[in-house]
Amino acid sequence: MLPIHAVTPFTLLDFPGLPAAVVWCSGCNMRCAYCHNPDIVRGKAGQKTPPEVLAFLATRRGLLEGVVLSGGEATLWPGLPGFIAQVRALGFAVKLDTNGTRPETLRGLLPALDYVALDYKAPPAKYRATTGHKDFAAFRRSLDILCGASVPFEVRTTVHPALLDAGDIASIVQDLEDAGYCGTYYLQAFQPGPTMRPLPSAPPFDRAAVPPARGFAVEWR
């Protein structure tokens, strides 16, 4: 399996304030039902070698300012630290999208990162059913690590109304308050499309039922 599925050559949406490319890393340790990237998650679709991607990025110097490492789950790739060092050597800022399940790996990467997006998939009571991953405590350590670090980061949740309700979001908001989070908490409405597994239909999510937070903003994307 090649470690990189594909590269999105240009985006203005994925790295706040910077024109960037997205590097999609193969493989994931979660099986979120609503995931739109099942081939990437299963690790069966690696198409790019790191030298190929770095050669492409070298041609984008002066046109792009950042590189987003997404997936899948990029922190599963043993070669990620070295790849990040090479990306930075080309002059790019680096953003990591992560599910937070590898807190010590994340801690080690932070000095080389310029921005992190942390996916808060579900509260503890629904974490395993939503993600197929049982270790909520590992995610929670990642949240604490980021709250205690100086690297800018955001927390985000994808909301499918058959999986999460307003009470679940309220629980997440409370946990973020307890953690001392002070960024923006982004809620992302599920968009129909191919998914990891079929999902039942459900009434639309009641956005008005999401409570305000103390110390940070809650916004829909």
Task: Itemize the secondary structure elements and their pairings.
Elements: E1 4-11, E2 20-25, H1 38-41, H2 50-58, E3 66-70, H3 80-89, E4 93-98, H4 103-109, E5 115-119, H5 124-131, H6 136-147, E6 153-159, H7 166-179, E7 184-189, E8 217-220
Descriptive report:
29% of the residues lie in helices and 21% in strands. The protein is α/β, with parallel strands linked by helices and 221 residues long. It has one domain (4-220): Alpha-Beta Barrel (TIM Barrel), CATH 3.20.20. The protein has an eight-stranded mixed beta sheet with strand order 1-2-3-4-5-6-7-8. It is globular. The two termini are 33 Å apart.
List its traits.
7 helices; TIM Barrel; alpha/beta; 21% strand; 8-stranded mixed beta sheet; 221 residues; 8 strands
Task: Give the structure's gist in a few sentences.
It contains 7 helices and 8 strands, in the order ββααβαβαβααβαββ. The protein is of the alpha/beta class. It has a single domain (4-220), classed as TIM Barrel (Alpha-Beta Barrel), CATH 3.20.20.
